[in-house]
Amino acid sequence: GLSAEAYRRRHEITVIGANVPIPYITFESTGFPSEILREINQAGFSAPTPIQAQSWPIALQNRDIVAVAKTGSGKTLGYLIPGFIHLKRLSKDARMGPTVLVLSPTRELATQIHEEATKFGKSSRILCACLYGGAPKGPQLRDIDRGVHVVVATPGRLNDILEMKRLNLDQVSYLVLDEADRMLDMGFEPQIRKIVKEIPPTRQTLMYTATWPKEVRKIASDLLVKPVQVNIGSIDE
Ligand code: ADP
Ligand code: MG
Questions:
Q1: Structure confidence at residue 155 as a pLDDT band (50, 70, 90)
Q2: In what residue span(s) does the DEAD-box RNA helicase Q domain sit (predicted)?
């Protein structure tokens, strides 16, 4: 088979960190639970994308990750599937709360992530809610009250709901900052920092960004602990 080094070279993957595990070149090598492999199979995917192949084994070691990869590279399942496995490893009581939180810059992106989470989490009975502004809070609060494992949210609406004390983040142990560069461009940094203060510091944190300017490097160094960095292709600073 293809060696890890050859696979990384071929797909322009560079990794920075100690003892970075070798990529999962095939779905069979992931060891994912059968219900998740079945969903992947039904989606018709033939192989993990490079960001998935390299970030899955790192995320499954409970390590923080900062991934720099362009749009369309399959980042969503890159963080969702390890999040689902993280959930499955927790006790039943610890799972609700929610445990997995994904922050996303826009309503549109949050909706797409929520759809992917609902689809791939369905057979694992994973409950998801999606919180975004510009829509009534009622249905979102009802989704929270039903009990949720995974929350996908834009920072503004999440803070509104936190201020209303209708949700607490005490049980969150897997935090994803998706499109971090865009969230910072949109001025969400104070909102993100406020949200993160509500989450126990023992969490695992994953940050995804298309670009790697100094503002993003700064928030990564503040919020992540010894992250492994995974870059796909060349990096725009
Ligand atoms: P990104 O967040 O990097 O922009 P997405 O996670 O939105 O990318 O994925 C882009 C598209 O690729 C989605 O339609 C998704 O379902 C699909 N996709 C994800 N993983 C794979 C895969 N391993 N093989 C083929 N398509 C995939
Ligand atoms: Mg994305």
A1: very high
A2: 25-53
- Of residues 193, 176, 189, 190, the one with CA closest to residue 216: 189
Ligand 1-lining residues (CB < 6 angstroms)? 45, 48-49, 52, 71-77
What is the DSSP-derived secondary structure letter of residue 136?
-
Reported as type and span, the H/E element at residue 25 is none
Do 57 and 16 touch, CB atoms closer than 8 A?
no
What does DSSP assign to residue 23?
P
CA distance linking residue 57 with residue 193, whole number of Å: 28
| Ligand 1 closest atom vs CA 52 | 23
Read off the pLDDT of residues 10-64 as tens digits, 9 standing for 90 and up: 999 999 999 999 999 999 999 999 999 999 999 999 999 999 999 999 999 999 9
Closest ligand (CA of 40): 1
Q: Tell me, what's the pLDDT at 92?
A: 75
Sequence-distant (6+) residues with CB within 8 A of 75 are 51, 67, 69, 178, 208
Contact of 64 with 206, CB cutoff 8 Å: yes
In whole angstroms, give the CA distance from residue 170 to residue 4.
38
Query: Does residue 237 carry a pLDDT above 90?
Result: no
Q: Which amino acid is at 144?
A: I
